[in-house]
Write a structure and sequence with these properties.
The complex is a heterodimer of chains A (80) and B (148).
Chain A: H1 10-23, H2 27-51, H3 60-68, H4 74-79
Helix pairs in contact in A: 1-2
Chain B: E1 2-5, H1 7-14, H2 21-33, E2 37-41, H3 42-55, H4 58-67, E3 72-75, H5 79-91, H6 99-111, E4 115-117, E5 129-131, H7 134-147
Parallel strand pairs in B: 1-2, 1-4, 2-3, 4-5
The chains are: A mainly alpha (80), B alpha/beta (148).
């Protein structure tokens, strides 16, 4: 374990006290669980993002229009 | 480590039929797995989402918002930022700079960041260091660390 000092706002501190009383643990244990939860969420988010790299395929018709008309698809050009 | 992202490069990473995907996909993967802080502007975000909707469909926009947006640090432009961005665009009229790119350059100046995930060579003249693949990303990260 690493010992450190953290400052909280009044609101945050009240929340931590209530959570520790409810769960019967220490303030530190509540903070550690919150860190674990944050880490888990970030890891899930990262895994999901990695799965979506290359997951999409462009509509071939839009691609053809785009190549013909520079960067503006045909229907956009018609819109003026 | 902060790196800005150009909408065209991000699009190329997400869309496997894009001609740049073979390079952009591994680059984005390396940025994400190495814990890079990906930054963009609201204009560049709009440009990317517009492009996804136009070329892929609304489902890609919805998935992007759900999956990637929470991983991005977005500089939301205010009216004064728009003026600075527009002024930069006007100064660079001879180049095919987009408003989104101009907003990125302004935000990068403000943040003191030079690394940009992009394939647009003209931006090098603007003092940008292009991050196009995992090797360039790691070289950039080492250079920034060494400069600290």
């Amino acid at each position: 374990m690493v010992r450190t000092q953290i400052s909280f706002t009044e609101d945050e501190f009240e929340f931590l006290k209530r959570a520790s009383l409810r769960d019967g643990g220490s303030l530190a244990s509540v903070v550690r669980r919150a860190v674990d939860e944050l880490r888990r969420r970030q890891e899930v988010g990262l895994e999901r993002a990695l799965r979506y790299i290359g997951a999409f395929e462009a509509d071939p018709l839009v691609e053809i229009y785009t190549r013909r008309a520079g960067d503006a698809p045909e229907r956009e050009k018609r819109r003026g | 480590m902060r790196v800005f992202v150009d909408p065209a490069a991000f699009y190329a990473a997400l869309v496997r039929t894009d001609p740049r995907h073979a390079e952009a996909g591994p680059a984005l993967r390396a940025l994400l797995t190495d814990g890079a802080q990906l930054c963009t502007t609201s204009y560049a975000l709009h440009e990317l989402m517009r492009r996804l909707q136009e070329h892929v469909g609304l489902h890609a926009v919805l998935e992007f918002e759900r999956t990637f947006r929470p991983l991005l640090t977005v500089v939301w432009l205010k009216e004064e930022d728009h003026r600075a961005t527009y002024a930069r665009l006007r100064r660079r009229w001879e180049r095919s700079l987009t408003l989104a790119q101009a907003s990125l350059l302004a935000a990068m100046d403000e943040a003191g960041v030079t690394g940009l995930f992009s394939y647009d060579e003209q931006l090098v003249e603007e003092g940008v260091r292009l991050v196009r693949n995992p090797d360039e990303w790691r070289a950039y990260a080492l250079a920034v660390e060494a400069a600290r």
